[in-house]
Amino acid sequence: MFERSIFDEYKLYCEQRFMLGDHEGFTAQNKHYFLVCIDGIEDHEITEAIKMGSHLNASGDHEIATFVPTKTNGLTSFVDGQNCVLFKLPQFVSRSKRQKSFGYELARFHKRGKTYPTGKKESETWSQFWINRLTQLEMLYGDLSKQKKKLSFDQAFMVSFPYYLGRTENAIQYIVDSNLDFGQRSQIEPKTICHYQFSPNTWLTIDDRTGASVKSPIEFVYDYPSRDIAEWMRNIIHRDDDPHGKINKFIKEYEAVETISPLSWRYIYGRLLFPIDYFRIVEGYYRSVDDEEGDQFTDQLFDLLQQEAKTEKFLREFHPKVIPSHWVTNVPKVDWLTEYQAPKLTRNSNDFFIRRQ
């Protein structure tokens, strides 16, 4: 029982429950809390994320949720069958409507995060990490090719993977070439506190009328600012039929606070080339433990494939419609975008697919 688990783990009496985004929340003694499930996240990552949140709060960002330890001063708890971390909502959150866009707010967030004393050695680069993930999918592709019976998702993966393999290899090479072209400058490109995969929904809205929101530290990661910018763009590409206006406004607001360097523009483009959603869906499907979860990933894969032509169109138009004209020559184009097309794959054209049983 939820209430019992909360009391056993935290000595808090759950007076009222609510939802905050996808997170379970509750009220205790006039204070508001929410749980974040952390399956697959290592303790050292959680600890580092909590430190980042404390730094941002001390730097003036008062929309950061505060970590709450267990009654034994532990990091995680076990609630309703899941490993969780508990956070307390800030006592005072601005209730006035935001006068600035996500771009402006994200730039302020990044500016505060640049002073974070990480003390960490250089971590694995994007290209190295992507190579590791690609190798795993290549092994999976080889194993599935030997199987005679394939489920709906298996067949869609087999048909689509060669395209995404090529796109991933282009993204990896693009980042490698960018670092080589910029030489030592790539070594001093500033990092900051970012998010794992930033979108307009990453900051948790606590008041729909005012737009007041809270930032969960569990989302934080130390990386280049271009990571958040690219992931925000990726989300808008998928949601909007004509994303350029919204993205250009976002960039203008962002650069009112922080400048996007030529190398950052390369990183943004390189990250957009990398099909992170495809990897997330495929990896998630083959880790799923029940049919319902597997069917959700199957739906997501077909939705992604249907949107791929729109993504390609955006990548082709990125230079003339998004990058400031004075930086365009510093960001090379990718020739294959004018030569190849995304795989056209729909459920209706693949009636031979075997659904999960």
From TrEMBL:
Keywords on record: Capsid protein, Virion
Q: Which domain of life is it from?
A: Bacteria
Cellular component terms (Gene Ontology): endospore-forming forespore
Q: Does the keyword Phosphoprotein apply?
A: no
Q: Which InterPro entries match?
A: CotS-like (IPR047175), Kinase-like_dom_sf (IPR011009), Spore_coat_YutH (IPR014254)
Matches recorded under NCBIfam families? spore_yutH (TIGR02905)
Protein name per UniProt: Spore coat protein YutH
- Species for this entry: Anaerobacillus isosaccharinicus
Tell me what gene encodes this: yutH
